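Co-fold these.
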Amino acid sequence: MFSDYFYYPFLIGTIFLFVVVIGRFVKWFMGLSKIDKIRVRIGLFSMKTLQSVWESVREGLLHHNIFKTNKMLGYMHMSLAFGWFLLIVVGHIETSCYHGSMFFPFQHSIFFRYYVTEPTDFPGHAFFNYAMEILLFFVLSGVMLAYFKRFRSKTFGMKRTTRMRYGDRIGLTALWLIFPVRFLCETFTAGVYHNGSPIFNGIGDAFASVGDLNPWLNPLWLTYSVVLGVFFVAMPFTRYMHIPAEINLIFLRNWGVTLKERRVNTFTLAEVYSCSRCGICIDACQLNLAGIKNSQSVYVLKNIRNKNLTDEVLFNCLLCGKCQEACPVGIDVNKLRITQRIETTKQYNSSYDYLKTGKTRQADIVYFAGCMTHLTPSIKQSMLKILDHAGENYWFMDENKAPCCGRPLMLAGQYDAAQKLIDTNTKMILESGAKRLLVNCPICYKVFKEDYQLPGVEVLHHSEYILDLVKQGRLDVNPSDLRAVYHDPCELGRGSHIYEQPRELLNTALTLVPMAREREKALCCGGSLANTKISMAERDVLAGKAMEEFATYAPDLVVTSCPLCKKTFAKVDSLPVKDLAEVVAGAVERKV
Amino acid sequence: MDFGYTTLETRSIDYDKFDRKLIEYLLQYEPSLLVCMACGGCTATCSAGNLVDFNIRRIQLMVKRGETDTLKAEIDKCMLCGKCMLICPRGVNLRNVVMLIKKKLSIDSGQLATKNNIK
Ligand code: SF4
Ligand code: SF4
Ligand code: SF4
Ligand code: SF4
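Predicted complex below.
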């Protein structure tokens, strides 16, 4: 037949792909910290590796997580990835059977029907014919869905897909062509040689009835080889790099490599390249509602990759964590964003030389209200009332003077500056000799819990603390017949995984109405301090939309457990908004 | 010759001469600064102002007048807590203003490496 060199484009593409991908993996590995490298070395020969293999199959091929979000989108990804994978594996087995050996020129398995046109009868011949053709139909169904999605993404329940760059277009076009071209190659060949199953032979005969297929064969097979080659060459420079990168990420993650905010290393790249630009994070993001459409996680990842990230994009995010919760690849998008914020602002951290540790007082429990609580005095009053009712020996640390907890600075990337505040507060808390630190602001809670070194001091969010009081019988709560919805604050819910204590506590005082979007899927109030770019008007839109959603449950009031959420929602003025401290304080009776 | 008194240095601002670069930069990235009505709510609530002599409203004034000599030392006092922004009746996004001033001063003093890929 035609020149045997037709498979060269494919061959060159494959070699190129392997060299680039392996080169990148090596570069990423070399850029890890020493400890991370040791982690990888230890992990390599542990069960973690097997676990990663399984996870790679589940996510890289079957796309189990995308299925959970969206069946159609999951099927599309699965049919393409898993279908293609099976085509390669089954094709390889088929060729081994044909040759009666495991060793044969590898292009024979990729272009099997080009090489094997004469009648043969190796073991399983008919089975393989059917299997390969059905698999090709399976993949083609995914390709069809992909065409369809490009033009009508609503079908997938997706509002929008990501915009593409030039390189991505080449990659996408090649990918879209691969399987239809293969289909033509095989049916045309079957039309001439009848080397397929009755299905393809029939289709081939139908084509043959239109005209002579023979002159088409060589150009078609060459085209097939070329589109494969083009796709492989384009792959490392397009979003399709996510296919190998995601598998790499799964292994690294299971071996214990994590992203560290303060130390930018190549793990950032390992994560950035794993993004498939599926767009699920765009749909999860509430910023859309306020017309902010260029700062969602997928764009940040893309900008990091293309080295054109701007502060305007980087800081226009609430760090609410909704996209991270939804991301099927499990990319640490919030941490990644903070890492970038640290990088870009590290030249101008403050030193706060004026900070002095104030007077401290010996107590069993320290109450730190925090800046936001000082803006919502009714929450502060309620907390003090509860502390008094419980008869605690407490010290109100920031009653008059105290620095901020440091978290707002950290959210803006100013980790070094925040450390000064952390040090001052730490000294004061430890001096008081208290065993417990009580906060009612989830922003403070997260930083005290995760970034302060407070040996022997238990950090408590007021939802945990008050629930404890009630359980110990130190506080009696009078139930009422009010119906309420509970809003999970981002920093407390997705941020600190406290979902149940507030609910358990509230159920003693009123009736909670469950909502469709709560716990991990809870909305953001829009007030988040993490976003330094969003305007007040845009924040109000987000708060208003969330309140609209709450209103559909017809509650008597909205309860939250964050002073900032309360302040943000209260502006909307459609439903009464209370902090759970206020609810409890309004329902307690003094224990005698 | 010493007459036993001195004349005060003039406090007047020459609007034709002062350096507009900073304020223009701020307004480009945070236009809400323009609508401040100088009510002083931000200063009254300020967490840093509670601890040290620091006046965020005056900082805005300084910036608008192009007085940037003491700006660096002053702006560094802010703790970015966000109270000012929440209290402001005009919705001025002061946290961003603070961050932008810090950034611009840092760029101007040449600290911020230009190779930094984040613009
Ligand atoms: S960040 Fe995650 S959810 Fe967003 S596009 Fe990338 S893979 Fe999809
Ligand atoms: S963290 Fe929240 S605001 Fe930021 S991109 Fe993700 S969903 Fe949007
Ligand atoms: S509170 Fe707002 S309007 Fe008032 S002085 Fe401050 S920034 Fe200006
Ligand atoms: S953000 Fe800065 S200026 Fe505003 S209230 Fe807090 S410390 Fe004061």
